[in-house]
Specification:
The complex is a heterodimer of chains A (276) and B (268). By secondary structure, chain A is an all-alpha fold. Chain A contains eleven helices and no strands. The chains are: A mainly alpha (276), B alpha/beta (268). At the A-B interface, helix 8 and helix 9 of A face strand 6 and helix 3 of B.
């Protein structure tokens, strides 16, 4: 199919063909996966996994209603919005704490000696292991979920920021001090911009973890949210609902990641090798 | 023969007094400099030349204030140097430009630290950008420039910050031969025009003879000054002239008479 549509374009101009190629190439693997999924369900005749068509219908009903008219029909916006609030509540809190902390750990030896070992001990603890404690700390509800998302996003942000500060070319500090830039303005004018590529690396990783952890976070007994929908689907053996929830999370994570990449490319216009 | 440095005043700008420097690497102590004395007058163009390990870059970094001497002191107008300062501008071999700032922002970085009002800052940055011939590239980032252009920015950056002594650490070492020659000429023009004092570290005898009023030959193990010679050639200098070759040969001999005797390992 891709070949058929790409061939006539070649006559009208190479740039159009190139554009089509750029848009179609990323679609090959998802389409092939869909096809494999469909064929596999047909061939094995399994009842455990719905075919793509059923999931598409579920997604339609989830979005617009009018098919099943049950508790999940036309509720996507409610669940999506709840999850977005928790994901970004946790993510922005992680960035607000992680970036300044990472800058200080990277630049100030006392802060590094004080905090780094503790962070390195806490870091390998799986976020899921925090689930019971976070429910004790924050009770049943959204705050426990936000805390878990925060924890997941925090470590990559703080570690990458620290790394970014530590790897700034020492000559830049010499150049800055020779030009009369010291103290807090050195932090703002040299340390922060020089560490920006690594900070964005951390933000992208942390943002990914934030979406990953929304399902765990919404295991904490919240009625609404994409993670809660997936947990409900599991309890009700509604596999089409589970997969629909997975697809929505995947797409939301993908689209918001593109936004971070766009911001990254804008802020790092000076450094083409850091463009994603 | 006309004496190139004579039209400049003989007021000493910099005085290096009995400077020694020892580094400790692991449990080994390396004596980079031993009892170095040097006086540099205002407006002079002085080249420090020597094989690797002779301490010429260390001496420059002590003058810049990036390193402290183990013994002795460097004085500028009679007061000792303790830290880096705008009056001594370093031009690094690897440029050390701020990659997130454009050409004109890099050049305006120093003046901006002094809180210059925006219109003065723009005017100053534009003037120095023009001086190094980069007006068309004022809004480019360093990653978009050639090595020669980057080094022009680095020179303009310290000059825009009113530096009185230009400290250059093998500044053209990373450039190709044609660019290097062009930049040498541009540097001489800037030096003539601004009357800035230049201390220029190089390991190229030809570069030293083309550029400087004085060539200070250093030897390694421990680093010290072997010879401090005036270059008795009129400017502009022609590298293919007979007298140029004579001077070059003399300095090369001075330099190589030690390489291969006791400082051979350091030179390798």
């Amino acid at each position: 199919m891709e070949l058929a549509s790409a061939l006539p374009a070649k006559k009208t101009g190479a740039s159009l063909a190139a554009k089509l190629k750029r848009w179609l190439t990323p679609l090959i693997v998802p389409l092939a996966l869909l096809l494999t999924w469909d064929l596999w369900v047909r061939m094995t005749g399994t009842r455990l996994i719905p075919p793509p068509r059923d999931v598409a219908i579920m997604l339609y009903d989830f979005t617009f209603g009018g098919v099943y008219d049950d508790a999940f029909s036309k509720t996507i916006h409610i669940h999506f919005w709840k999850s977005v609030q928790r994901v970004y509540g946790g993510f922005f809190a992680a960035a607000a704490v992680g970036i300044p902390l990472g800058l200080m750990i990277g630049r100030i030896k006392l802060v590094r000696d004080l905090l780094d070992p503790t962070l390195q001990i806490l870091r390998p603890v799986p976020v899921t292991a925090w689930l019971p404690l976070s429910m004790i700390f924050f009770g049943l509800g959204p705050n426990a979920a936000i805390f878990l998302v925060f924890l997941g996003a925090f470590y990559p942000i703080v570690l990458n920021t620290t790394f970014g500060v530590r790897s700034v070319d020492h000559r830049l500090f010499e150049a800055a001090s020779m030009l009369g830039c010291n103290g807090s303005s050195l932090f703002r004018q040299v340390v922060l911009p020089a560490a920006t590529p690594s900070i964005f690396n951390g933000l992208r990783l942390g943002h990914g973890f934030a979406w990953i952890l929304i399902v765990v976070g919404e295991m904490t007994g919240v009625p609404e949210g994409l993670g809660a929908v997936i947990m409900d689907g599991r309890t009700l053996s509604r596999t089409d609902l589970v997969i629909a929830g997975m697809i929505v999370i995947g797409l939301a994570g993908f689209l918001t990641d593109r936004m971070i990449v766009a911001l990254n490319n804008r802020l790092l216009a000076w450094s083409p090798q850091h463009h994603a | 023969m006309p004496e190139a440095g004579l039209h400049r005043s003989a007021r000493p700008t910099l005085a290096v007094k009995g400077v020694s420097k020892r580094f400790t690497i692991g449990d080994q102590t390396v004596e980079a400099l031993r009892d170095v004395n040097l006086t540099i007058n205002k407006g002079e163009f002085v080249c420090l030349i020597g094989a690797s390990g002779c301490g010429k870059s260390t001496l420059l970094r002590i003058i810049a204030g990036f390193e402290t001497a183990t013994a002795g002191a460097v004085e500028m107008y009679g007061s000792p140097i303790t830290a880096p300062g705008p009056e001594r501008g370093m031009v690094f071999q690897d440029f050390a430009l701020f990659p997130w700032l454009t050409v004109k922002e890099n050049i305006g970085f120093g003046p901006r630290q002094r809180g210059l009002p925006k219109e003065n800052l723009d005017e100053l940055a534009a003037r120095y950008t023009d001086m190094v011939g980069l007006t068309k590239f004022a809004d480019y980032y360093p990653s978009q420039l050639s090595g020669g252009m980057k080094q022009r920015v680095a020179i303009a950056r310290v000059l825009a910050n009113d530096c009185e002594v230009l400290l250059m650490d093998e500044p053209f070492g990373a450039l190709d031969a044609l660019t290097r020659e062009k930049l040498q000429q541009e540097l001489l023009e800037i030096w003539e025009r601004t009357k800035v004092t230049v201390i220029f570290v190089t390991h190229s005898v030809e570069e030293a003879v083309v550029l400087s009023d004085r060539v200070v030959v250093m030897t390694a193990g421990p680093g010290r000054i072997e010879q401090d010679a005036r270059i008795p050639l009129a400017r502009p200098r022609e590298v293919s002239a007979i007298d140029f070759n004579q001077v070059r040969r003399d300095i090369t001999q001075k330099l190589t008479s030690h390489v291969g005797v006791k400082s051979a390992p350091a030179a390798a």
